[in-house]
Amino acid sequence: MLRFYNFVQYKYCIGTDPVYSFLLSRILIFISRVSVLPLLFCSTMLILITALLVRGCRPGKIVQMTEAEVRGLCIKSREIFLSQPILLELEAPLKICGDIHGQYTDLLRLFEYGGFPPEANYLFLGDYVDRGKQSLETICLLLAYKIKYPENFFLLRGNHECASINRIYGFYDECKRRFNIKLWKTFTDCFNCLPIAAIIDEKIFCCHGGPLMSLTQVCLLCDLLWSDPDKDVQGWGENDRGVSFTFGADVVSKFLNRHDLDLICRAHQVVEDGYEFFAKRQLVTLFSAPNYCGEFDNAGGMMSVDESLMCSFQILKPSEKKAKYQYGGVNTGRPVTPPRTAQAPKKR
C-alpha cells in the first residue's frame, strides 16, 4: 500500500571528503602509468572516476573527456536501452529524480545526498540536457552509471532528449563548441532509444510529462513527454506550451483506477519546493534542479520509495546564487517554464 512519510529532509551545500578526492587522484595517476590500461579499466570506469574528481571543485569546472570516450558511452548505453523494454517494470527500493537540465554540480550533490550508485537504485525522469552549463558532463555521468549498473540505474526520456528541442536550447551548441556536430547526432541516436515510462511494483506510474488514456498508447510519445496537470481543468485542456495538453484531477483518478495504480510520478515543471502534489496526492511533480537556470529560488526534490512503498522526499536547497546560464558567453534569451506557484520569476 502506498504511503507518504511526512518528514521531509533538507540538505544544503555538502562538503567534499578530501581523502576521497586524494585517493581518486592517486588512482588516476596509477592508471596513467600502466601500459595494460584496457585490461584494468574500461573507458566507462575512467569517465566515472574523472567525472567524480570534480566534486568539491568550483562549480562549472569542465570534466576532460575525449570524443572517443563520449561516443563509446552513447553506443554502449544505446545497446542497453534497446535490450530493455520501453515500459520498465521496476521494484522498490529506489530514488526518483526529476529534471536536471545540465546542472552538473547539483547532480553530484543529489548523489552525495542520496548515495552514489550502487549504494542506492535510481530512476531519472528525463530532461538531462539543455538550459544548464554542463549538459555533457551531466548526460555522460548518467550514461556511464547506466552502463556500469544496468539493472539498478534507469533513465527515462524527457522532451529535451529530442533533436528538435535540444537543437535550440543549448545542448547542440555545447556539443558543437566542445566536440562537433557529429557527436550531437550520436547522442540523438542514443536518446531515441530511451524508455519512456516505468511502473514501480505495479503501483507507481512514472513518466516525464503525464498519463495517457491507455497504457497501450505508449506510441503517443508526445503526451508522455509534454502534458501538464492543471487544477482549473476538467478532462483535457489546451497547453500554453503549444504542444500536447493539460489534464485535470479527474483524468488522474480515471487513469489510476483503470490500471489499478496508486500514484503518478512525473517531472517537466519547475515546482518551488522541489516536489508538489496534485489531485489529492494522486500525482506528484518532481524537479531536481535547484535555483533553476539562476532565475528561480526553487529547491530540488528527490523522492525515495522503500520496500513497503513508503514515499519520502529529500530536498536540496540551492548551494549559492548563480548567474543566468549562458552558452558560449551569449545568453539565449529564451524563457524558461516558471513554477506554477509563482507569478513571475525571481531575478537573481
From TrEMBL:
Reactions catalysed according to its record: O-phospho-L-threonyl-[protein] + H2O = L-threonyl-[protein] + phosphate; O-phospho-L-seryl-[protein] + H2O = L-seryl-[protein] + phosphate
EC number: 3.1.3.16
Transmembrane segments: 27-54
Example of a GO cellular component annotation carried by this entry: nucleus
Start and end residues of each stretch annotated as Disordered: 326-348
Family: Belongs to the PPP phosphatase family. PP-1 subfamily.
PANTHER family reported for this sequence: SERINE/THREONINE PROTEIN PHOSPHATASE, SERINE_THREONINE-PROTEIN PHOSPHATASE
The protein's name: Serine/threonine-protein phosphatase
